[in-house]
Amino acid sequence: MTVAAPANLMDYVTSCALPTPWAQFTLHAFIEHATGKEHLAMVLGAVDDGEPVLARVHSECLTGDVLFSQRCDCGAQLEGALRKIAEEGRGVLLYLRQEGRGIGLVNKIRAYRLQEAGADTVEANLQLGFHADARNYALCQPMLAQFGIERVRLMTNNPRKIAALEQVGIAVTERVPLLVNRNAFNTGYLDTKAAKLGHLMTPLAETVAQDGEL
Question: Across the strands, what pairs with 145?
């Protein structure tokens, strides 16, 4: 059973061409009613033909996406997803302003400080009084509906993200693993996401997904 997302979550505002190193996307802007946050969609090719669309739902990570932090895999996932979409010639990337799994930039830096004192990424969020993951994926439904997208091939290692999209009526026909940039600085972070948040962080996950178990 799916749950319909409220139709008034956000407004579509405008769009422009966005040339990148991999392809020229069309960049679309949305404003979320409840928070005033500005969310983005990067679209390439014809995506409204009813066929499943290669997609990435990417939560903002200023430290990883912009400042090249090696504490996480976010920046590499963003680049990898855009590269995959460009190679296919068709797809969409939703860029949601949900920094730090929803806790915001300053609180994420506070969480990093706690991690330096010994907490893991989940414990740090909880110590600050937040949920381990406070993101809202209902935002994806009106954004994808703007482009006529109802079915996606989702680039993710997070099965909770798949469940959240399906709950608001987006069919995930395939999970496409996005395993990138494991390094000496983020190994503990990635292992915690696997152990405590259920992320699928090994190459074996791709085989499981292809067998139709996810």
Answer: none
